[in-house]
Amino acid sequence: MTVNTMETMMENVRPAKIIEIPEFAVVMLMGASGSGKSSFAKKHFRPTEILSSDYFRGLVSDDENNQLVSAAAFDALYYIANKRLDIGRLTVIDATNVQQEARAGILRLAREQNCHAIAIVLDTPPALCLERNAGRPDRDFGEHVVRRQSEQLRRSLRHLEKEGFRYVFVLRGAEETDSARIVRKPLWNNKREERGPFDIIGDVHGCFDELALLIAKLGYRIDPQSMAAAHPEGRKLIFLGDLCDRGPENIKVLQLVMRTVAAGGAHCVIGNHDFKLLKFLKGRQVTRTHGLDGTIAELEDATAEFRAEVGKFLESLISHYVFDDGKLVVAHAGIKEKFQGRGSGRVKEFCMYGETTGETDEYGLPVRLDWAGEYRGAALVVFGHTPNPEALRINRTICIDTGCVFGGKLTALRYPEKELVDVPAAREYYRPMKPLSPGTPENDDLLRIDDVLRQNYLSTRLKANIKVREENAMAALEVMSRFALDPHWLIYLPPTMSPSETSALEHYLEHPREAFAYYKTRGVGKVVCEQKHMGSRAVILLCRDVTVARERFKVQEEKRGVIHTRTGRAFFDDEAVEAHLLDRLDALLTASGFWNDFSTDWVCLDAEIMPWSAKARQLLETQYAPVGRAGRAALAEATNAIEAALAASAQSPAAAKTPAPPGQSGQDADLATLLAAFRARQETLSLYTDAYRRYCWEVRSPDDYRIAPFHVLASEGKVWHGENHMTHMETIARYMTGADPVFMATPCRIVETLDEDSIAAGVAWWEELTANGNEGMVVKPFDFIATKGGELLQPAIKCRGREYLRIIYGPEYTLENNLERLRKRGLAHKRRLALNEFALGMEALDRFVRKEPLHRVHECVFAILAMESEPVDPRL
Amino acid sequence: MFLSITYSGENTQDIGFLFRKNPARLQVFHLSYGKAHIFYPEVSARRTTLALLLEIDPVDLARGKAGAQGGLFDYVNDRPYVSSSFTSVAISRLFGSAMGGRSDTHQALADARLDLSARIAMLPCRGDTDMLGRVFGPLGYAVDFETFGADETFPDWGKNRYVNLSLTGRVRLQDLLHHLYVLIPVFDRQKHYWIGKEEVEKLLRHGKEWLHAHPEKEFITRRYLSKSRALANLALQRLRADDEVYEPGEALSEEDEDKKPGLQQQRLGSVLAAIRACQAASVIDFGCGEGRLLSLLMKEKQLRKIAAVDVAFSVLERARERIHYDRLTETQRRGIDIFQGSLTYRDKRFEGFDVACVVEVIEHLDLPRLAAFERVLFAHARPGHVILTTPNREYNEKYALEGLRHGDHRFEWTRREFRDWAERMTRQYPYSVRFSEIGDPDEKLGAPTQMAQFSRLPDMPPVSFAEAGTAAGESGAP
Fold first, then answer.
1. ipTM at complex level
2. Which domains does chain B have, with CATH numbers?
3. Contacts of B162 in chain A (CB under 8 A)
């Protein structure tokens, strides 16, 4: 009792050993069998962080001590370790690791994953290990095993750092092991907590005057004493490296950057020039080329103290930083996604030089691999290193080295505003080895198969984690590749639309009451009812001219826009018709002042194009019309025959006495009843024929089309999902219709879902529309995007008319026996699809308007197309 | 939906005994797909007409029977209204003994040739009206019909889609029923049930007495077993056994007619020869389709790696079948990769081949998509050689074609256009090009197919696209 208390007290007074490890690393535990590695791991790490070789032996063979399966167990262990490290998870490898070969595997893993390897060694006395093992019946191997392991461990200890472990911690004895504490430190490059605002400045190369002008323009003031810059609003500067060489005032630039960093007003990453200067300052051999000679000359005139300060400063610079929750990454020459937040020689090399093929071009410059073209990461990467006449955006990267020292300009990127601010060079300080020419971000717009063809989750602003199933993506790939327009044109595809719940009313399958109720019960007090046109859905993309199309949409065709179907195909087979209708729309928008009023030179519209027969001619000719024709003629034939039979039986009662032949299963039935039933059927066939004929007329010239736009989807700088549906309707009515009979407004009205009179008026309007042979109406929440408790609501619900539905459910669907059976239909799947597709469509537009790269827009559009191949009841 | 049979002569009401259906009553029979009503619109000593009226449930057709997993048909469907295989099934179910030619009470009537006529309402015939006479005429019928388009208000929509057909002849009732049983589906072409081997037996049974001598037996057989060519061939073989005079060969299916086997063979031969000349060890076939080239490539022992790519997933399945992929040993499979890919999306799996074949593919791409294809192929896949064929549009004159050769062709190039394009490729990418022709050339128009063989130039650094604008300012890697 007393002894225990004493020990506890002693422990309490003795300072515990603190083990400081990076938050992301491979941690190797090392120790003989029985040294207490597993208990230590359990105490300090999450169970999922620990990969124990014993556990994996158990996984593959049901026996944790089965040494015969070691190879397989480690195979599995490394497989999991790689998966964890791929996504940046700290991983602990719990095995004896006393042999160099075992450790080599761990070091290789860390190298491949560009993270540090940490060794924690449990140097437990062999006697204690043996004692512990004795208590475990499954560890029956001899004493010599433990002794040999301890021996190997001792011998390895002094090599560990040389082998490549970044940090080595040795815990001697049980006491030290038990009292140790582990502290996880963020990596140096991790500045996720810093969210800006920042002003990121490209390669300065000793151009002090331009730098001073630029930061003044950005609102910074330089303290004449310390030479540190500061911003009254607390903005911070970020320098992308290559501070010196080639330019006129290298020392002054170094001074300003060093002092500002020291004062906490700036961050700086290392550039290749800075690295070379550092080598020089450390006394190593360097060739004094590419402007280094000038910097050295300046430094030779400076004080030794200043040189030391520069050396210390350069030594402290790291390869890259991750800011703003991982949304912003800066590095001198850029950084690919899998290197972000990692630390290794390879990462540093990449950040300073970029990725090169090892070959040189005609100017003797290294041929660089196009990492930016390949870049698919979520973080914005801001970098410099390669001068271009203008800042160059490729995917989610931007190079802001605009060659100030070569007579270009010095550029800053304001973050999060993402605005560019620049100052022209006063002169060419250094002759470029090859002329500055505009960058060609070619790979930017070449789509990759991985952008679309993989089981994919897409996150949109309106809905997170939308899953695209692989088989749907495969179907979409074919359609997109073979039939769709150039993906540059496709910035949106329309979502599918759910009908209202099946009506409870007799004789009706759909009725507006259910649509109103949907929104009412979800807290939407006001809805907009729009007449539903029966034609074909179309997306119209119109630019003011071909130049706008080429520049904004990066298309190569000589076209000012497109009209495409819901699956991204050209709406019109004849390009001349498309061009003619686009010209007419442009004339309307020009005359009505749309372009000027909304300061845009392009617009994207959602529309319905009539007649239905123009697009659905084949379907009408081979399915809809023949059904009506066959039905009417056959039923006429049938009713005539029944009438004749009725007449015959009335006239010739003698026939009735003929005895029925024996052995037949035929039952007697009533001809009159049969006649009534077939006449009722005959009637539905002519109603059916009337129903589809209303949507058919010959198109002899483009004048015969009717185009009804119903959403203004997007224009420059604006996705119109912030505008309510009445605004859409009014804008369309005001700017696009009236002057040209082809373009028509859509009748609409507001219904208050809490007001019974308003609902009744809405229902009456629907009844009137459908009685006149119109398809029906679409009910939309007043706001374009409606949510309840964070959940997205249906953007629209259609209520189709009783007659129209004959085209969907067949001519005879209204017969009571049929209607009852049709009431069973499930909407859930359709509604989920509608929400997903809507969220993706809005996301695609958002991304396009934000000028995100093609693949980011395309992945959304492609996903919508993929969802359209999802099997869903086509009648909904 | 509606069929009537009229007997004219003496005591015609006796035909009720053959049908075993009482002329005095409306009778209803329950069949799997709905009801059959039988009644007599006309009963007299001189003329008696029996009507068969089918009431097919349209909702069941679309949804399947209660409990079943969905039906085979659309809700908007002509099946409930037309004469079809449903009619045939009803004939055999309801008039079994009449078809067998047996009657306990009126065997003489069953054996006699009678003046019969049949009216078949709304027989779908999709324009095949000239076949009506050629099929029914030889069987001894006078043929009369009224045609129906798809919609009388739109007269140019689907002309002659249906006929109300009247047949009049002096035949036994059993003959008429057999003829109708077989020939209604021959015109309708849309059987409501799965066509299996037993269909061959049915055809031979119902056609026993007349089919082998029918001048249109080939047409009838192929149509009756419409969806299955293998079954049709089986049936024809068995018909031939009873028939000495038979001319084989002529009737190719529409599918075969399109393919012009001669040219196809020559084209593949030229491609293979080019591959051999390149001394290639690896080949990727873009747009492999059903794997015609692939199956030839597999016989080339020098190839260690073969990939076949198509954008249509469904044809890849057929390509696998063609080469019996499932039966290949693991070693055989190792070098073969068949996968879905698109020529307008950059794809790592396309890289590292000695030869890429692009045989009759580019004309299926819309012209505006060609730019992406060029970059995917020449800048990224970067094969050692590209063997590319496409139709020579000039040659279409020989086919008396005004438009393009295939409905899915987006363009076809003249020889000049093809050369211009190919030469532009060699200016943009480090390749040289040679041209050749495939097929019998016409002096003026050239050959039907044109081929370009691109070869990557040696000793050129790989082209890097971000580099086009790279300027000075590099102090060099360490």
1. 0.82
2. 2-193 (3.30.1610.20), 261-456 (3.40.50.150)
3. 626, 629-630, 633
